[in-house]
Design a protein that fits this description.
Elements (H helix, E strand, L loop, with lengths): L5 E7 L13 E10 L2 E9 L10 E7 L7 E6 L3 E8 L2 E8 L4 E7 L9 E5 L2 E2 L6 E3 L2 E4 L2 E3 L5 E3 L2 E4 L10 E3 L19 E8 L2 E9 L2 E8 L2 E9 L7 E6 L2 E7 L7 E7 L6 E8 L10 E10 L2 E9 L11 E8 L4
Antiparallel strand pairs: 1-27, 2-3, 3-4, 4-5, 6-7, 7-8, 8-9, 10-13, 11-12, 12-15, 13-14, 15-16, 17-18, 18-19, 19-20, 21-22, 22-23, 23-24, 25-26, 26-27
Length: 336
């Protein structure tokens, strides 16, 4: 049972529309934040064929009436897989720069006027629209690194909030962890992806997408990333995002990578043990799973409601993965 309070599309891109052909034909990587009484939503434009094809452009939309209406604000170039956070009354957008190989950052005082991109990390690293932890003037992200064989490596990225966050010297990347095959998961490449940085009991942890019903959990000790454990997590195979409300952590994601036709909300009090709360979106009645999908949710919690973005492939999408719509919906956090 689920009651939708409001639903609307933010952006649509037909798969044969070439208006963003330098970046791609599909919409992805939604991220949402509330800043100065407005809702801001980002998304990127990607193409098939991996990161060597397109992946250059992100865009920003704003709603000034709680999500009922959305309007375009600006483009970010080069910018992919971005995530937003607020610190010291400024809005920041951290992105992957696939052109120059690294992580960049943009900043704004009002959400409408933005700085240029400043490089904060060099190398083949990737961000994602997932959770960011802020504690004691430190900003914590959980990016991944790729090696030349296609393996991925988990890291923490730590920003010093007492310094200028647009300066490279304000950021450090910790040691990395490449999951051994003995942990399970993919047995062809060492795989970890799209980490959430979360504070629990005064400590900083990262939960990464890993395998079917499994996530990898890491702990930050000083400035060192340490492997903590493999945890059971129904949404751990596909991209998920974690938010905290009171003493409860909520996670939202798909239960499988294929098909991607069901998104659920989960809850935990310790980040290690998760249980189902409710269904967020269910399109299992659609038979054509090759061309229809819902995936990569991002949400914030406000007034006991889930303000949610979804990456959607419906209505003549290229494939279930190559989505053509970014949608917004509000539903109650709890069933009523």
């Amino acid at each position: 049972f689920r009651r939708v309070l409001f639903r609307s599309p933010i952006n649509y891109l037909h798969p044969k529309d070439n208006c963003y052909k330098e970046s791609g034909h599909f919409l992805g990587s939604p991220c949402l934040i509330e800043f100065k009484n407005c809702l801001f939503a980002t998304m990127d434009v990607f193409d098939i064929g991996g990161t060597n094809h397109g992946h250059l452009l992100s865009m920003l939309y704003v709603s000034k009436n709680g999500g009922k209406d959305w309007s375009f604000v600006k483009y970010f170039r080069p910018a992919q897989w971005g995530t937003m956070f607020i610190f010291n009354e400024k809005l920041y957008f951290v992105v992957t720069d696939l052109v120059n190989k690294g992580i960049g950052i943009f900043a704004s005082d009002d959400g409408f006027n933005w700085s240029d991109q400043y490089r904060i990390v060099d190398g083949d690293y990737a961000t994602s629209p997932t959770s960011i932890a802020i504690k004691d003037n430190k900003i914590y992200l959980a990016p991944r690194e790729h090696d030349t064989q296609g393996n991925s490596i988990a890291h923490f990225l730590i920003g010093d909030g007492t310094k200028d966050l647009l300066e490279k010297d304000s950021w450090i990347v910790t040691n990395g962890f490449m999951p051994p095959f003995s942990l399970g998961g993919d047995q062809t490449i060492h795989y970890v992806e799209e980490g959430n940085a979360v504070e629990y009991n005064g400590e900083i942890y990262a939960l990464y997408r890993f395998a079917y019903k499994k996530a990898l959990m890491f702990k930050l000790v000083g400035t060192e990333l340490q492997f903590y454990k493999v945890i059971d997590m129904d949404c751990g195979w596909c991209k998920f995002v974690i938010k905290k409300d009171g003493d409860i952590y909520y996670a939202m994601g798909n239960d499988t990578c294929y098909p991607r036709n069901l998104i659920r909300l989960y809850k935990s009090i310790d980040l290690e043990h998760w249980e189902i709360v409710k269904v967020i979106e269910d399109i299992r009645s659609i038979v054509d799973i090759e061309h229809n999908g819902i995936q990569y949710p991002y949400f914030i919690i406000k007034n006991d409601r889930l303000y949610t973005l979804l990456r959607i492939a419906l209505n003549e999408a290229d494939t279930f993965h190559n989505s053509n719509t970014i949608g917004f919906k509000i539903i109650p956090l709890k069933n009523d």
